[in-house]
Amino acid sequence: MTLKHFLWFIVCCGFSSTSAQQQSVTVDLSKQPPLKIDLRYSGTFSELRPNHFHGGVDLKTNGREGLPIYAVADGYIRRLKVATGGYGKVIYLDHGNQYTSVYGHLSQFSPRIQSYIKSEQYAEKSYEIERYFSDEKFAVAAGEIIGYSGNTGNSFGPHLHFELREQKGQIPLNPLDFGLVAEDNDPPTLVGLYLYENDTANIDDLKVNRRRISLQKVSDSLQNYYVSEPIEAAPYVGIGIEAFDRLDQSINKNGLYAILLTAKDSLITYIQFDRFSFETSPLINEVIDFEFEQQSNKDVQLLFKRNSHPLEMYKKTTNLGVIALDSTTTAFELILKDHSRNETRALLQLKKSQKSTTYKKAFLSSALDSSYSSASAEVRITALEKSMVSSQPFDITFYQDTLSISPEEGLLNTPILARFSFSDSMLQRITNQKVFFGKVSKKGPISFLNAVKGASFETTLKSAGKYGFAIDSVGPIIEPKNFTPGQNLNNFRYLTITLEDKETSVKRYSGYIDDQWVLFEYEPKNKTLRCDLSDLVLLEGGHSIRIEAEDAIDNRSSWRAQFEIR
After folding, report:
1. pLDDT of residue 307
2. pLDDT below 50 — which residues of the chain?
3. 3 vs 7, 75, 138, 446, 543, CA distance in Å?
4. How far apart are CA 430 and CA 447, in angstroms?
5. Cα distance between the two ends of the chain
6. Are 376 and 402 in contact (CB under 8 A)?
7. Which of 76, 129, 456, 536 is deepest in the core (most CB within 10 A)?
8. Are residues 339 and 182 in contact, defined by beta-carbon separation less than 8 angstroms?
9. Could you tell me the domains of the chain?
């Protein structure tokens, strides 16, 4: 054994006298990426996602599961998690005392990690599991295979979700800033440019007066430079953009890296997507035109902001990004950049209109502590002042057991508390049937939020819309998928079983072979349970299999069958 190998053996075994927390480890993703294939992206850092910014990058795996995933630097496994949602099977590596890398949606871990986590799953008799470690448990070398790509958790196609975080505060950082290769020869695409205007600089009032600005290309030779005709507008304006970027070899519409708005060589707004805090991620609904997104499914990012808005990606906003116009025409230049320094520009020519115009004002909800009644229940609604700021008046109704909070497209800045007290007839219904409370979708079905038990219950409502009650009297559906009862399974590696609950969701399940608990991995989006028969020693002869499951409101199902090994 060479000295180099001997020293690495000591580190791997945890005998190093220097803790990883006292070291500084360089992370260079250009030299050691998490995948050893040409990197193609389905998602980039800080993209606009429903109710959050994207915390990492999504790397395509050629539509395949099982590609090796590599540690991007020396370090230690700090956390392992297996879940049916979120990142699914995920690894968190600490690199010295500065960075953490995250690898999500894995199909499985590397053999030594897989062996450990499976033993823990059997010890707890649970597929979902989470473990934290000290430095000495799992040392990892740069370039070591730590797992394999997959599609677990909230993933809708095989890929690797990769993050790089600042350890202090677990702040997501843009991996492209650390050398992760992203070939990109096309400038960002400006889909739409919007002007928000009012006769005051109030941010809420600006948001409710939107108009789209027409742009023309400057010339055929400048395909990514646009200009507007001279525009007369209100005394105060803000800018919003709908835009995306495409990387090479990918049709996905990804996020930008930087947005700048200037006038007369003075910087008005500068946004750079290099870092943000998970705690501030829900503020995405304040920096997009939320009502417009709900109505049109278009993400318009606002270049103006509230004073209290703490998102770090907004590097500069002169006067909060609100522009005061005068009677002279001023040229404003909008610059959109991707990480490869490709640019798209637009020149706006704006001046204050001399016409007298009345602009809409935002509706701010008042503090509320009121009760509403129907034949079956009374509901007490408690809401803080300015719970909703919208273009339409705030309203709450409770009719035929349907609670409506409008406008449906409005953004609830603070949740609303609803406390229900039921009539005797409703209480009898709840006693005799399994009743749940949920949100009514635009297509009709009610999505589960809470089980209803007893004479009263309370719930927190985080979005506007319609809410109501429904009955679920059927337990989860359990059916064999890749075999039939009584079949010889001698050459089978996996047993696959359908597990589905159509009304609410599967809350818990257990699988047994010959009355012994065995690990079944659950994938809700595929509605499947899967057991790896290589985990077991099955002698020749007959064997029994049993699945027990329970849904979100305690309906239970049980399924049994026999199979052969011969």
Report:
1. 85
2. 1-21
3. 6, 20, 21, 65, 53
4. 18
5. 47
6. no
7. 76
8. yes
9. 3-178 (2.70.70.10), 189-352 (no CATH), 363-471 (no CATH), 477-565 (2.60.40.1220)
